[in-house]
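Model it.
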Amino acid sequence: MFIMKEKITTTEKKDFYRKAIGLTWPIVIQNLLSAFISSADVIMLNFVGQKAIAAVSLASQANSLLFMFLYGISAGAGMLCAQYYGKGDLKAIHVIEGIALKISISVAVILFIIGFFAPRYFMLAFTSDPELVELGIIYLRVVSFSFLFWSISEVYKAVLRSATRVTVCTVVNVIAFTCNIIFNTIFIFGLFGAPKLGIMGVALGTTLSRFIELICCIVISIRSKNVKLSLRFMFIKNDLLFKDFVKLSVPALLNDVVWGLAFTMYSVILGHLSSDVVAANAVVSVVRNFGTVLCFGVGSATSIILGNEIGEGKMDTAMDHARCMMRLTVLSGIIGGVIVFLVMPFALVYADLTETAKGYLKIMLLINTYYIMGTAVNTTLITGVFRSGGDSRFGFICDIIDMWCYAVPLGLISAFVLKLPVMWVYFLLCTDEFVKWPWVLKHYRSGKWIKNITRDNIMEWY
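Modeled.
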């Protein structure tokens, strides 16, 4: 067990905070771009029609499914690569990259086959509306090509981030985002002599932007002196690294699934109470996403920095820097809460809601001013600190117990058995993050998460 003692000097702390902030802000920009891309597609589809928005929202579940897998795969690759980068073992990093590419491309090929050759069956799983099915088929047949490009670029970016090349990844995301907006505009409206493609234009814009993103990754790889992108890495066999990869990736993937399904259940519970609270919750979700963007940035930076240090064998330094990151986390939670509070007047004025829904919106936003602090602490510890030491299992178990044994049952009982007022139900659902604190903080202080998951002489196992 590690004893939490401050061992670094003031100068060292300043240098560390400078490095941490330098890694955090590019990740924040990446997260903001992700939020803006979703919003941009919806805004542009408004010019095509409500049916187009509905069809794309259903068809894009294929994108969400692939993202879920890529997130888990990238998390596993990132945890291992960060430590091996700190250790200076670039050969092991390329083997891990090959393993991740092999899995990500396999998943992407399966979704491509479904999206291109059997899109009707996919759409019928979500809707029986003939018009939505036909529109979804048009979208899927084109966007399915983007899955192949995305499966490669996303893994390579995860490896680059683990090697602290976060700014480069941000530049790639900015380019992809800009291209997506430009292509969407051109093909939706038929500008510059291009055909007016409507919903197909959105799919084509997404596919072309993903292709350009991959081209950017290839260019970076060519110019890189260490971290390369090559499909030949997939054919390097190393059983030990494969076992390590699966051991780390599967819990991270399942953690994301458990967390996402629980939040879906929150929406289902609220959806059965009132249409007004559903409308208010839609606005709250958007505001909260922008309020938590800094928290998630700090969490990602934590995983990279501590992972590198643990790989170098600097366990005491990693523990001290984990404490520093906790201070940044608290600050990010406060800033996130302030952002929600400052946005609240504008949301209440400009949101096209009924008076009842606006009343719900005000209370829900006030609850989220402090709820973000719970999210900030848990995100940094579970996805940042713990995963830097290869501990992805704790978060998975923690969320199963907290969300599925506590929050979801509490929401169901309070809503449908006790029949409490709507805002009391929402308040109780928003206690989930704070209920985790005692166990999460105890695990953090124990130091059990800090493990060097690298292996010596791993390349002898080819």
